[in-house]
Amino acid sequence: MIRKLKTIEIERLSVEQFHEAQKMPLIVVLDDVRSLHNVGSVFRTADAFALQAVYLCGITAQPPMPEIHKTALGAEDSVEWRYFATTEEAVEQLHRDGYFVYAIEQCEGSTMLQNTDFRNDPHERYAVIMGNEVKGVKQSVIDMCDACLEIPQFGTKHSMNVSVTAGIVMWEFARQLLLSFLLLLLPLTALAQDFVLGTDMGWLTEYEAQGKKFYDNAGNEREAMSLMADYGVTAQRIRVWVDPSKHGNWCGAADVLNKCLRAKALGQDIMIDFHYSDWWADPAKQNIPASWAGHSYKRMKRDLADHTREILTMLREHDITPRWVQVGNEISNGMLWSVATDPVTGWEIKDANGNTTITYSMGHLERNPKQYAGFFRAGYEAVKEVFPEAIVIVHLDNGFDNDLYNRNLDTLLKYGARFDMIGMSIYPYWSIQSGKEPDAATTITDCIDNIRKVSKKYSCDVMITETGFEVDEEHPEVMVEGRDQFRRLIHECRTLTDGHCRGIFYWEPECNPQQYRLGAFTHDGRPTEIMEATLSAP
Fold it and tell me: What is the CA 327 to chain-centroid distance, rounded?
């Protein structure tokens, strides 16, 4: 028996939840629509399909009005709307905002609605213009549009009611975009359940061996990973070095297993971060492990794959299943290429201008792009051999730099590499220090914009795998600023990336600020205000 559901049985969002929910990337523009009932009906359908907004232009009436409410039934309160004195002004604004604008009209050269494949369209956001009930879309507006869409009709009439036309168009966009962008239409509450807050605490075991203690804000001594769980942390990122015997064996196989077992005991997800080096790997250096030095490209691909399988097989044998695996760490300039280093400190040698000397360019992005992609592919395939369901991440720095991501990721794809997710480092402090960004606010804005762009272009999700904010115990206001910046980053990653940013990992919150200034703890092992962002971000 088919039983009609009662209203109370149908799960509906509140107006507040709707405002926070992800939206379909479509705006409906009403060009001199005279009927208030049509306006209300468009609002109601726009609510049903979770549109970004409705633009009201010219003589089109604006809420609040009883006639609009009669058909909108409150949707005028849930759906964002904006008024423009002319539709031409609205189109100009849409183009400035990056929208592809369609006129819904019978035109020379128009495309039938059913013949337009929005899934393969390179454009990210769309707007559709509905015209006046008698005159349709004005020619002056059509002249400004990017294209015209037409709904096929087979009867004696050559037009349909504005609200009916709008409903047909909205449904066709939703039908197609739902196939590729299902997450766009999920409410924020659903997305938030799988938005990960994680930490990278690679120094933890080394600190513990030195006798360092950690405390909560009440002064109770705590194990650091479990303390992070109090702040909503549900995942740990754990770095792997090939042969760190000259560096205390920290981040070697045994140390990695220790940290993974501890994270597992806390019920936390695990991200494995392969550096493919005996020590630090980052954009300035990707030093080839000593035991791989002098090997041919073919042999080094095998070295990389063998090392990847060895570590992951060790984890599998201990019933540890990483959720994510990074093939390389901050490989913005490629991987497995070496620079001259100081024989005493191990750090790269820089000249007066801060430049390093490349001594071996095997997998350098610019010098050997095909080999770079070959290394990444070898790592990807090795991960999938051991853990087919693991999400393989390609990790670059400077998350605000869209050109960097296009250049690097296009190279990987050009030469046959694959990745499942894009990892980003974003440090407002370092971006300002380097002169690449003017301030923290701009850095975060540019990062969010880049997440939207690369997730769209490469059809995959993004994870911020590293971030951090300055600790200055002599100036508490600095940590308050860091807390606010971190809170903003969390909030906008959750709400302004169309659901494609899946989490944030804080890099070394437990570190001593005298060793590294972008942690989140005091020198005596207590969380600073920065960590409060994980609990208070809206």
Answer: 18
